[in-house]
Amino acid sequence: MSRIQTRRRAVVLVAAAATVAFGVPISSSVQAAPSEASTVRPATSGIPALVNPGVDLGRHAPGPEPTWFDSIYFTSSVRANGQEFGLQVHTRILPNRGEAAYRWTFSVINKTTGWYKDHAVMVEPEDYRWSQGKLDIQAPGLSWSGDAARQSVQVETPWGALDVQLSPTGPAMNYASTGVFTLVDGVPNHEFALPAMRTSGTLVVEGRKHQVNGTSWLDRQWGEMPTSLVRWTWMNLGMPNGDKVAIWDTIGAGTKNSWATVLHPDGSYDVVAVEPLAQGVSRRWTSPATGQTYPTRWRIRIPVLHSELDVQVTGNPDQEIETPDGGGYLEATAEFTGKYNGKNVRGENYVEMTGEWKS
């Protein structure tokens, strides 16, 4: 069987729910629809995207579901004064929820020294603004504005601050190539990324100011959060050849999905199956704050891409952000080495994990 045929089969397995629900045929290698974030020649053929960074960076009118959510975040790898930092800024809203509905978080890891700190803020609805149709977020301690071409983010916490500018250097990534996919158990989600954003500005940590430069990966997601979701793992990998790889591994009450969207520098995609991550996890760590257990090392296998990657948390394993319900989730810097399309690769990424991993 040829490689293209194998990839097409993987795509069908991963994205069949989106195809059925939205009537969009998904092939193994498709061209991205033009977006305001794209810096490559617009596509002349391919399937249409169901998301648009030009307007979908703005807040969406909520659906009726109690767990309906809007989320936007970015992770960064930046350098300053001979040190390397990982940054994460995230805000999410659950407007149909009675409490803990509006929230933002900020975390910093000094990958050179292992120092880590995070900050979470619950915001009253009347003190939170996220405009529809455009990126304009204002909340106590957080300002985030701009568009698909340039963004400005300011964060203030008791122990530090961030003031950075972000601008994309490549095309937007539509997850599953259309921007719509089944998260778990038949529940669709919308998601796209600006996976290569030049990042510069200032980071203040415990009174010390750093002029930072590096790159960020921005992710925008919205829809219904399945109540049957048991756990998930998300990873973002930037390859030396310019490919951007986003991995989702989800477990629900009735289904399990493990797959990746691969965005190539020319704006084309591969959507492929990934071996379930639970088969290759090790070095579990238990949080002293929440009691939750997470792996800190993974063996990632993507058979049709002839890829096998070792991913491990960097800095220190205690990069958990606590949640209002007493739980938490891992939002950790990581590094990867191994084979991608048969070639040796290495790089930096983030790993996001929710749920329990004792077994």
Automatic annotation (TrEMBL):
Residue span(s) of domain AttH: 111-224
SUPFAM superfamilies assigned to the protein according to its UniProt record, in alphabetical order: AttH-like (SSF159245)
Signal peptide feature range: 1-32
Keywords noted in UniProt: Signal
Pfam families, sorted: CrtC, Lipocalin_9
InterPro entries: AttH-like_dom_sf (IPR023374), AttH_dom (IPR010791), Fungal_Dehydratase/Hydratase (IPR053112)
Matches recorded under PANTHER family: ATTH DOMAIN-CONTAINING PROTEIN-RELATED, TERPENE CYCLASE ASQC
Designated name of the protein: AttH domain-containing protein
Lineage, top ranks: Bacteria, Bacillati, Actinomycetota, Actinomycetes, Pseudonocardiales
